[in-house]
């Protein structure tokens, strides 16, 4: 059995399939595992270059428990408190706590009792949506609209999901405080999307964060990927790094193997692809049976990408928070810059900052900061143009300073990651962080199916059902392992 790609989806499905008795070989074009869950280590500083917050940790607790030793035996998973500190355009701030029981009081204290009541009402409705989609939809194969309808218990359930309503529209109807509307809009970016086009169903994202909390892995979230890789090796899986798959070969009965970049052919009657679905169907799989899947992908929009600064800073930050989000005055201008007719680097972006209170991540008396801003994909903007990355990095630091977080005089050095780097390093189209966006009902609910049109070929990872982000990627691996079955 062959797995194409050693991102978190590829690793998770490999562990499950190896545990089920399959002989698994993983082919990864990069020199190491992890995909977007990357790491940079330099001069005593350690940076997670991908996800920095774990929600729904039970997905990985189940994975590790079902493949060997429990998760807590191999990594330290700790709560993040607060989960995030938000700074709004008027200078007000909101610390959203880890524990759901404390959320109402935090919002009331920062934004007023009316805001807390409004938010709670939206989250109560989101709880019902989670009951409707959490297990029936997200944790089972979904092959199309018929599956979605079949998994809904009633017409009332479909009306509750209401895919024609947008996240922005719900906020405008239900949340009086513009700061709360801005907060709700932000959760569209968890799937790399535009809140003006993302279905209101995405209210389940903040609900999940508040119901199950935000978590961090000591030593960085990369440790989760390393622990999962070690689990795969213990279970007998083989890995071939620096090995690019050029073609997935098929025959009348289904998949037959792989052709590697050097011309080597590998026989396999089961292939699991952790490659971006657009890359799989557009480049790796010439089979005519995939024509419908290719057409469907052409109708959806890839997710946004990200521009990242890794900052090595001298000194310590008073009143630090693990995560900060610094909102702009005009949030719509950001989405226009990314998803509009003339994509360009966002002039005044939302800035996301992570600086964990983890002494293992930086030398004594120093801090390692991960800074992310949403960005158009490579190809929409030529991020390799001379000087662009450095100029934009300077602009992001200036924006941070204008919003009360000036670290320029503390800067020892910086590393820059652009959408072009994400595309090169992960194979995602244009450096799209989440595969396809959730811009529209079909894109949000009907991502590429885990079972391909070619027998024996399966899709795992953030570009396939149920979507991007560590929890959903873990769910996709569980779905695929059930579809493949035991050896």
Quick structural overview:
By secondary structure, this protein is of the alpha/beta class.
In CATH, the homologous superfamily of the domain at 2-37 and 55-74 and 219-300 and 441-484 goes by the name: FAD/NAD(P)-binding domain
Uncertain segments are none
Architecture of the domain at 2-37 and 55-74 and 219-300 and 441-484, according to CATH?
Answer: 3-Layer(bba) Sandwich
CATH topology of the domain at 2-37 and 55-74 and 219-300 and 441-484: FAD/NAD(P)-binding domain
CATH domain class of the domain at 2-37 and 55-74 and 219-300 and 441-484: Alpha Beta
Globular, elongated, flat, extended or rod-shaped: what is the shape?
globular
Strand order of the largest sheet: 7-6-15-16-17-14-18
User: What gyration radius follows from the Cα positions, in whole Å?
Assistant: 22 Å
Helix share, percent = 25-40%
Task: Give the count of helical stretches.
Answer: 17
Number of strands: 19
Strand content: 15-25%
Structural class: alpha/beta
Distance between the termini: 10 Å
Overall average residue pLDDT: 92
Largest sheet: 7 strands, mixed
Domain Amine oxidase: 8-467
Family: Belongs to the carotenoid/retinoid oxidoreductase family.
Keywords: Carotenoid biosynthesis, Oxidoreductase
Protein name: Phytoene desaturase
Tell me what you see in this structure.
The longest helix is centred in the N-terminal third of the chain and has 21 residues, at 113-133. Helix 1 runs parallel beside helix 10, helix 1 packs parallel to helix 17 (470-484) and helix 7 (167-174) runs antiparallel to helix 8. The protein has 487 residues and is of the alpha/beta class. A hairpin with a 5-residue loop joins strand 6 and strand 7. It starts with a strand and ends with a helix. Helices cover 36% and strands 18% of the residues. Among the domains are: 2-37 and 55-74 and 219-300 and 441-484, FAD/NAD(P)-binding domain (3-Layer(bba) Sandwich); 115-215, no CATH class.
């Amino acid at each position: 059995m062959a797995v194409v790609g050693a991102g978190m989806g590829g690793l998770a499905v490999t562990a499950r399939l190896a545990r089920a008795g399959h002989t698994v070989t993983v082919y990864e074009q990069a020199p190491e595992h992890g995909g977007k869950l990357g790491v940079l280590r330099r001069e005593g500083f350690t940076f997670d270059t991908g996800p920095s917050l774990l929600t729904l940790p039970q997905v990985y607790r189940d994975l590790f428990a079902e493949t060997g030793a429990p998760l807590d035996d191999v990594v330290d998973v700790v709560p993040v408190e607060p989960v995030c500190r938000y700074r709004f355009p008027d200078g007000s701030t909101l610390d959203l706590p880890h524990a759901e029981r404390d959320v109402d009081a935090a919002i009331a204290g920062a934004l007023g009792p009316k805001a807390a009541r409004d938010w709670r009402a939206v989250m109560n409705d989101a709880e019902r949506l989670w009951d409707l989609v959490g297990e029936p939809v997200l944790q089972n194969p979904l092959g199309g609209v018929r599956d979605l309808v079949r998994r809904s218990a009633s017409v009332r359930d479909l009306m509750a999901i209401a895919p024609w309503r947008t996240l922005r529209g719900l906020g405008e109807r239900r949340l009086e405080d513009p700061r709360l509307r801005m907060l709700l809009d932000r959760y569209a970016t968890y799937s790399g999307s535009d809140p003006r086009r993302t279905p209101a169903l995405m209210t389940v994202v903040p609900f999940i964060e508040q119901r199950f909390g935000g978590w961090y892995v000591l030593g960085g979230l990369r440790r989760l990927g390393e622990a999962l890789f070690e689990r795969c090796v213990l279970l007998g899986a083989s890995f071939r790094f620096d090995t690019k798959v050029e073609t997935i070969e098929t025959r009348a009965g289904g998949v037959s193997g792989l052709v590697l970049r050097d011309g080597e052919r590998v026989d396999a009657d089961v292939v699991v692809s952790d490659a971006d679905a657009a890359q799989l169907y557009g480049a790796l799989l010439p089979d005519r049976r995939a024509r419908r899947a290719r057409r469907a992908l052409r109708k959806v929009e890839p997710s946004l990408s990200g521009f990242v600064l890794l900052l090595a800073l001298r000194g310590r930050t008073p009143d630090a928070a693990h995560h900060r989000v610094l909102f702009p005055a005009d949030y719509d201008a950001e989405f226009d810059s990314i998803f509009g007719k003339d994509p360009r680097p966002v002039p005044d972006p939302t800035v996301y900052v992570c600086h964990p209170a983890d002494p293992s991540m930086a030398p004594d008396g120093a801090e390692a900061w991960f800074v992310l801003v949403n960005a158009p994909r490579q190809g929409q903007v030529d991020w390799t143009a001379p000087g662009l990355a450095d100029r934009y990095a300077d602009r992001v630091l200036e924006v941070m300073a204008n919003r009360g977080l000036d670290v320029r005089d503390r800067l020892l050095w910086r590393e820059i990651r652009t959408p072009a780097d994400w595309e090169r390093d992960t194979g995602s189209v244009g450096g799209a962080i989440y595969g396809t966006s959730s811009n529209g009902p079909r894109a949000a609910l009907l991502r590429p199916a885990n079972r391909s049109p070619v027998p024996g070929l399966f899709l795992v990872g953030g570009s396939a059902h149920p979507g991007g982000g560590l929890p959903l990627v873990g769910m996709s691996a569980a779905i695929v392992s059930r579809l493949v079955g035991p050896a």
